[in-house]
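Any chance you could type out some protein's one-letter sequence along with its backbone structure tokens so I can compare the two?
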Amino acid sequence: MQIYDVAIIGAGAVGTAIARELSKLSIKVVVVDRLNDVGGDASKSNSAIIHTGFDAPPDSLESRMVVNANPLYDKLCCDLDIPFKRTGAVLVAVTETEEAELPSIMAKAHANHVDDLEMLSAKEVLELEPAVTPDVRGGLLVPRESIIDPFLFVVALAENATANGTEFLTGWEVSNLTFNENEYTVESPKGEITAKFVVNAAGLFADKISSFLGIDDFKVHPRRGQFHILDKAAPIGTKRIILPVPTKVSKGKICTPTIHGNWLIGPTAEELDDKTATQSTPEGLSDIVAGVVKLVPGVDARYAITQYAGLRPVRTPGGYHLRTFENLPGFLELSGIRSTGLTSSLAVARYGCEKLFKMGLSNKYKKHFVSKRQAIPCFREADEKARNKLIKQNPLYGKVICRCETVTEAEIVEAIRRKPGATDLDGIKRRVRAGLGRCQGGFCGMRTPQILARELDISIEEVTKKGTGSEILDGTTKSLRA
């Protein structure tokens, strides 16, 4: 049985951010997750926005975490070589009722200590974003709203934590958690580990993990958000994130550029019971387009190259909760960290570590913490001179596997060999974008599995899309004849 100082349950944005923060210490840390890769349920399938917190509930823990986290991204993304851009956002009021809401949204921003918003007239909105509907009645400029690649963010945190000694166990679903004599036993069908401290960062399944320890005073259900990804050639015409006036349920359907040059529209906000319902629906996808064209009339679903859905954890009772318990020394529960969790994760990690220190975790910092991480060189973004240099260093950079995104074999191999590395097609896709272009894997779809099989030393029939049960091949064509 493996023994650790801290076991973190959940490898989404919050779990990996805590892992990196703890990796600064001279302790032994492990992160476990039921999924086949890091990224969690919500962290890898959201709107990819780093929020300022201007519309968070004032005087709430959520507001404190989001507002404190936003300024941390510039340095962290530089240190970890993550693409990040402060595009800014324009919140657009289309109806008289929405226009009347603008002063109260501005007041909420001030209550949250986000003081750089600007009130805009209809004319000023159209001067900033001419592609916005001519029916606009006014708006707000939110200068520090930003975009990021959420999966690369989680991967970078995990890679940096690993470089500093953290272990990751994926495909490791927790089946029980017990406390006895000042230590916890975390059980899985794959084995057991023990730890003096346990962090419940399981997101959608935070209620299940806490219930193992007799904590049953809250429930978590999924709120599904569906999205369209539009082709880079889509004639949208906006430069910033375009936001609607938010509702009590969600921030509404947005239109945003992505860090890689595509366009993202969505999400829906569907209250569900099934924590595995990540499929998109015709009704939801149509609803997205109907909502977004009210803000940006040029949005055209014919430019959609793919769709996806994410599940945001909704806690009842609501709100962010970072809790400790007198009868469970060493246990930290993080729940209710909803759609803003991607943004808040860096501040939540620091705040969570302080709670662990108060419970007795050693705060002895390493003398040689590795603070930097270098991304896989991106052939697509390199100029001719840099490309030639890469090919000279590694001939596999001269072999393009994904034509749409110009991803080379060298990049795919590196994505597999890194720790924690890709072990399936989705892991490759999210790390280096092979299969994320216009043809959605039509060209690279049979080349990438061959590389995975070779590098992982498995048969091609064992290659999966996203872990066990999603194998993509079932024998040869001729063997399938009736």
